[in-house]
Amino acid sequence: MPERLGPPRAAPLFGRVAIIGFGLIGSSIARAARHLNLAGTLVAVDRDEAVLARVRELGLAEEATADLAAGVGDADLAIICVPVGAYGAVAEAMAPGLKPGAIVSDVGSVKASVIAQVQPHLPAGVHFVPAHPVAGTEHSGPDAGFATLFLNRWCILTPTEGADQGAVDRVRNFWSAMGANVETMTAQHHDLVLAITSHVPHLIAYNIVGTAADLETVTQSEVIKFSAGGFRDFTRIAASDPTMWRDVFLHNKEAVLEMLGRLNEDIALLARAIRWGEGDKLFDLFTRTRAIRRGIISVGQETPEPDFGRRRDGQ
Ligand SMILES: NC(=O)c1ccc[n+]([C@@H]2O[C@H](COP(=O)([O-])OP(=O)(O)OC[C@H]3O[C@@H](n4cnc5c(N)ncnc54)[C@H](O)[C@@H]3O)[C@@H](O)[C@H]2O)c1
Ligand SMILES: O=C(O)C(=O)C[C@]1(C(=O)O)C=C[C@@H](O)C=C1
């Protein structure tokens, strides 16, 4: 499996690419697109002037602006990379700048809500192809991005019924070129799957670190001192961006609540097994879950150590 990005393309895949929201994900796309020659011109759009100043300093895009409509003007591809709670406002503000035939895509961790927020604002003749790269770290901002973030990771496309196949194929090619494995599913199915594989695990991490910090019988320094193993992994996840994750939970409410209901029932069964000394039940579950972890590693979805933030080629 390649650990590095391939050589740059002879001709860019898209002419003008606008990236709205230039944080971890937006700047990672820009770095990969620049390295691989996927865009003729890169335009950084962000509401935060400090972010735009940093983009200019690092030379991550040819243009940088806070004006959404101007930023997407003449863009062939506009990718929304802001927290999912801001999608409606962003789509509304950028819509007047979009040219006919432009493709709008995104990277949001939730898909049904994103489609509901964006689609109504898009002018006729603009194609929407929602996407979610299942790759990230606990860090935020333009300095946190790196070009290999999407290498050998999944990117899920959730095109709506009647979506323009040509536009879907172009977005697929864009993500494949960045090293991602692309899969397509409905937005509803995406939200259910990601609720259990990503959203609920984050909620558990936020919760367990919060609970540990609130314990009266364990001091704060003990929490830090003895967090070398499993708990340390939870603290990494629980350091993830509060705005992003607040929005994820508020915008994938039903699926998350459904999965939390299942989880609560299963935790009650585990508590019962511990109380009544039913070691076989615990052993059977732990054996099953160990096999799942080994399966994940053997298909190359995971590094052996739980350090997802590491840059795989030093970029
Ligand atoms: N962080 C991850 O691990 C990860 C992984 C996959 C997908 N995502 C998704 O990617 C998106 C961005 O996440 P990130 O981690 O890059 O966040 P980030 O905080 O690093 O960057 C977000 C950027 O959006 C800008 N922004 C916010 N509201 C805006 C608005 N109204 N107009 C213009 N700019 C605005 C912020 O100034 C910031 O620079 C989210 O939708 C998230 O769900 C995140
Ligand atoms: O590795 C991490 O830090 C992540 O949390 C990445 C992660 C995930 O849950 O897998 C987080 C949110 C995204 O939407 C996609 C990927």
Order of helices and strands: EHEHEHEHEHEEEHEHHHHHH
Q: Structural class, judged by helices and strands?
A: alpha/beta
Query: Residue share in helices?
Result: 40-55%
Instruction: Write down the overall mean pLDDT.
Output: 92
State the end-to-end distance.
Answer: 18 Å
**Strand adjacency order, main sheet:** 3-2-1-4-5-6
Can you tell me the CATH superfamily of the largest domain?
A: NAD(P)-binding Rossmann-like Domain
Strand tally is 9
The largest pleated sheet is described as: 6 strands, parallel
**Low-pLDDT regions:** 303-315
Which architecture of the largest domain would the CATH scheme give at its second level? 3-Layer(aba) Sandwich
Strand percentage = 5-15%
CATH class of the largest domain: Alpha Beta
The fold-level CATH name of the largest domain is Rossmann fold
Overall shape = globular
Into how many domains do the coordinates divide?
A: 2
